[in-house]
Amino acid sequence: MSILSQYVPVTMIDIRPIELKLNNLYFKKGSILNLPFQNNSIETLSSLCVIEHIGLGRYGDEINSFGSEDAIKELKRVLKVGGIILFSVPVDNENKIYFNAHRAFTRHYVLSLFQNFKVLDEKYHYGMAMYDEYEPSRGFGTGLFMLEKLYDDC
Predict the structure, then answer these.
(1) Which pLDDT band holds residue 118 (cuts at 50, 70, 90)?
(2) Are 47 and 32 in contact (CB under 8 A)?
(3) 30-72, pLDDT tens digit by residue?
(4) What is the 8-class DSSP label of residue 22?
(5) Which residues contact 60 (CB under 8 A, 6 or more apart)?
(6) Does residue 154 have a pLDDT over 80?
(7) What is the pTM of this model?
(8) Which of 26, 120, 135, 144 is the most buried (most CB within 10 A)?
(9) Handedness of CA 85, 91, 94, 100 (dihedral sign)
(10) What sign does the CA torsion over 123, 31, 37, 18 have?
(11) 57 and 50 in contact (C-beta within 8 Å)?
(12) Beta pairing partners, 13
């Protein structure tokens, strides 16, 4: 975020205060479950390796079996129609929880949560390599998605 803020203004939202002062980098204390933005108000949004932690209690948040799904609903709420989200999560051959560390998801499940979105690009990081396609047989990896909101389903 610090590098990106050297080119465009960036606002970070986190439950933990950040002690960093950079031009064009702004911080708002908040929760991904209750973002401090109006409906359909954000043009570009990123959530990079965040939602898989929500609801597991590891960072002082409440236990919530559907924390990741609730976080995605909130991201979808604030993104404008036509807006872009850059989104990454752990992927695996099935949806699972790695005890209180994070969740992992299948590609199918991730895209079902973003059914009102168009996939503009996707990449998968397994081990030391990047791939253009999800391959469940490779096991645990990271899915990176660039999605466009087509319509509002809130």
Answers:
(1) very high
(2) yes
(3) 899 999 999 999 999 999 999 999 999 888 888 999 999 999 9
(4) B
(5) 15
(6) no
(7) 0.92
(8) 144
(9) negative
(10) negative
(11) no
(12) 28
